[in-house]
Amino acid sequence: MEFINVNSAIDTRIALIQLNRPNELNALNLQLMSELRDALKELDKDDNVHVIIITGNEKAFAAGADIKQMAGKTTIDMWKMDQFSTWEQIRKTKKPLIAAVSGFALGGGCELAMTCDLVVASETAKFGQPEINIGVMPGAGGTQRLTKAIGKVRAMEMVLTGKFISAQEALDYGLINKVVPVELYLEAAVSLAKKISSMSPIAVQLAKEAVNRSFETHLDQGLILERKNFYLAFASEDQKEGMQAFIEKRKAVFKGK
Ligand code: CAA
After folding, report:
1. Tens digit of each residue's pLDDT (9 = 90 or more) over 114-163
2. 58, 71, 177, 213: least CB-packed within 10 angstroms?
3. How far is the CA of 27 from the centre of ligand 1 (A)?
4. Measured from the CB, is residue 17 less than 6 Å from ligand 1?
5. pTM > 0.90: yes or no
6. Domain check: are 50 and 166 in the same one?
7. Residue 106, ligand 1, Cβ within 6 A
8. Residue 30 buriedness (CB in 10 A; 0-12 / 13-18 / 19+)
């Protein structure tokens, strides 16, 4: 059984991955996460793809890790299963990831959206870390990324009470980029992807790495990586083209070289 669909023809340079376990509200079981990791690895290598959108369906982006798959497990089972190594690999995707969220983005679903680089949501989206309701806590970055995105007291309330927030609240808190009517959320994600995919893919990937580094390191080290990546961009033809086009007052044509 395949739990994800990959559509690389959604638009030039944009690939769409759709999570596809609708009967389980796209609960993220091991198989789905492995398929997602493999698809991202392939798309990351494909020069024709500049931006990747991850979406679910109208009712659910993903309602979290698969509770039925975990319910009877012991600590040692969970340790051997090592489900989070898959997440680590997903996190290393070099190309920008946009989450197009409608409906539930809960637990691992919220964490997956936060692992993406940009999040577009429909008005019906609900974000939450409800693991506390089932006697556990977030395990795929929720306590860290949520706190950095929306601040300690809001994150604490969501994590300790399991409270859901609406798309509008998520926008107000700085968790997501955009809220649109439900019929437009995918279109809005594609439009954002199109804008990014018109840029130099080299500069985009260097910039993504540098922004993400700010979550992982002290300012000094982050600034060192930023500077190195900035200099590295000067090794590309795209940098010469981009700056020359500016001087000549014309639109740059980037080649990813
Ligand atoms: N795991 C497994 N199955 C799930 C699931 C999950 N996380 N979420 C929903 N489902 C299944 C339900 O069991 C149900 O299946 P059946 O029809 O076979 O009973 C089906 O999806 C539809 O769900 P509901 O009938 O519950 O739908 P609803 O509209 O009444 O409620 C909901 C929706 C509020 C999202 C509710 O399904 C829910 O609370 N889901 C669990 C959310 C959750 O706790 N997520 C955190 C998981 S742990 C985690 O993610 C750890 C981590 O950090 C990695």
Report:
1. 999 999 999 999 999 999 999 999 999 999 999 999 999 999 999 999 99
2. 71
3. 7
4. no
5. yes
6. yes
7. yes
8. middle
256 within a domain of the structure (yes/no): no
Cα gap 89→84, rounded to integer Å:
9
Whether 131 is catalytic: yes
User: Quick one: 143 and 212 in the same domain?
Assistant: no
Mark whether 220 and 108 lie in a shared domain: no
Containing 165, the helix (H) or strand (E) segment is strand 164-166
User: Same domain, yes or no, for 224 and 108?
Assistant: no
Q: Return the CA Rg of the chain.
A: 19
Range of the domain at 193: 4-197
Residues 151 and 234 grouped into a single domain = no
Q: What is the pLDDT of residues 162-215, one digit of tens each?
A: 999 999 999 999 999 999 999 999 999 999 999 999 999 999 999 999 999 998
Does residue 66's CB lie within 6 angstroms of at least one atom of ligand 1?
yes
Catalytic annotation present for 121: no
Q: Quote the distance between the C-alpha of residue 244 and its chain's center.
A: 33
Q: Give me the CATH number covering residue 159.
A: 3.90.226.10
Neighbouring CB atoms inside 10 A of 167's CB total 26
Catalytic choice (39, 121, 131, 142): 131
